[in-house]
Amino acid sequence: MGYSLQLYVVCAFAAIGGFCFGYDSGIISGVLTMPPFIAKMTGGDTYLKAIQTSVITGLLLAGCFVGSLFAGQLCERLSRKFTIIIASGVFVIGAAIQTGANGYSMILGGRFVAGLGVGSLSMSVPLYLSELAPKEIRGRLISLQQLTITIGLMVAFWVNVGTESMTDDAAWRIPLGIQMAPAVVLFVGTIFLPFSPRWLIKKGRNAEALSVLARLHSGGDETAPHVVAEYDEIISQVEHERVVSVDSYFELFKGTILRRLILGVLIQIFQQFTGINSIMYYAPVIFQQAGVPGRSASLIASGVNGVLNVLATIPAILYLDRLGRRFVLISGALVMGISMLLCGIVMAATGRVFKNETTGQMEVDMSGNIHASYFCIVMVYFFVAGFAYSWGPCGWVYPAEIYPLSIRSKGTSITTAANWLMNFIISLFVPVMLTTITWGTYLFFGCCCIVMAICVFLFFPETKGRSLEEMDVVFSGRILAFRDVKDADLKFKAQKQNEKTESFNDVKEEEV
């Protein structure tokens, strides 16, 4: 079944929201180590304290937490489309404040405002993509957001390298200012994107919804069988939800929806306990700890890391809908866990932990063993690749596809808020961990990844190839998901047979 080019163009454009977050996360890691920025923020000191570094990175995440919660209501009332437009505008304002910052307080204010925009985008974009995408390629299209996040990270790292030689405030103002450009493009371009067909049907705009489905899924043919079938399925689901009044936050804590909420929150929390964002935020520091000499060399190593992140995300886009969510999540967690454990073990065995008399912080010196240094860097690269093809995209795909339409925006906003809350907490602790327990940080995240693989195997049911309206059946099975895989297939076959039987009986009744 072929899908129109317009579908891919619309989804790829909406995914620019991911670029905004990726670029901001990547750019701040380099900016935090720039001497002109440090001097401006501290009033002339030569280094930032660990708590200052934590707060600068963490306030963006606090804003993301708040923004993702508010976005749930905006998506419901104003539409997914208008929420993306508003979030883009808020991000531009936050980026402008950061660019013009004249001190520590102003940069913190800009980070929080930008976070409101990023949090809203991170919740509304996957929701919007999930409701535009056909079930056969839904994972691929939602994964576009993760791809743009990685592209944003990669661009940010190389912008940091490009401004390395500057010695005035332009060294950090230019990188921070660049992030306004994609947000402006998203703000203007989203005006011309279609509304979510599922949101339109919920609002009673059925003819417009059918037109959008036909335009995106069949090149404008409103009589195409798969378009008519999807349209009827959405109509049926909306009518059912209206009858049972499934539309309040309290419904999230009832029946199988509570199970979905728990799994959605867990997958977002787990995504942060991989440690990926901490490695992206503090990449230069991490590569220096692993033995890369000099700030320029560590920035270049981070840039290579960014390129690898993009390339390793592409397989997820191509194969996620074939391999399934469970396999991708479990294998990715194992790759990341083994990489982090090996990195920490080798760093502990070969590195020399000492206290920096200037900063008063613990550091690791691996300059005496170049082979061990390169091994640790390679393990970091394996870790990033493992995340990029698995928990990166699936962390956004899974929560966006599991809820009923009536509370999908509410459920997605809560799971996304859980992501940012955990990201915020971890970003506060990681700088302290890196400068106190040093190599123990890698062992901690390695163990977390192994636990995640076990949890997915035990509790997370497969959702590939199922329409958004079929998720009630997916999550009505056993709590131990690994025992329910075959049963789920049988249930769907039985459901399809019943639908065929009912359809045949309806035709017979009409004939009579």
UniProtKB/TrEMBL annotation:
Protein family according to the UniProt entry: Belongs to the major facilitator superfamily. Sugar transporter (TC 2.A.1.1) family.
Domain Major facilitator superfamily (MFS) profile: 10-464
UniProt-listed Pfam families: Sugar_tr
UniProt cross-references to Gene3D superfamilies, sorted A to Z: MFS general substrate transporter like domains
Cross-referenced SUPFAM superfamilies: MFS general substrate transporter
Gene Ontology cellular-component terms listed: membrane
Family matches, as InterPro entries: MFS_dom, MFS_sugar_transport-like, MFS_Sugar_Transporters, MFS_trans_sf, Sugar/inositol_transpt, Sugar_transporter_CS
UniProt keyword annotation of Transmembrane helix present: yes
Gene: PARPA_04782.1 scaffold 15639
Transmembrane segments: 7-31, 51-70, 82-101, 107-129, 141-159, 171-195, 261-287, 299-320, 327-350, 370-391, 412-433, 439-460
Keywords in alphabetical order: Membrane, Transmembrane, Transmembrane helix, Transport
Protein name: Major facilitator superfamily (MFS) profile domain-containing protein
Its membrane topology: Multi-pass membrane protein
GO MF entries: carbohydrate:proton symporter activity
Keyword Nucleus carried by entry: no
Principal cellular location given in the protein's record: membrane
Subcellular locations according to the entry: Membrane
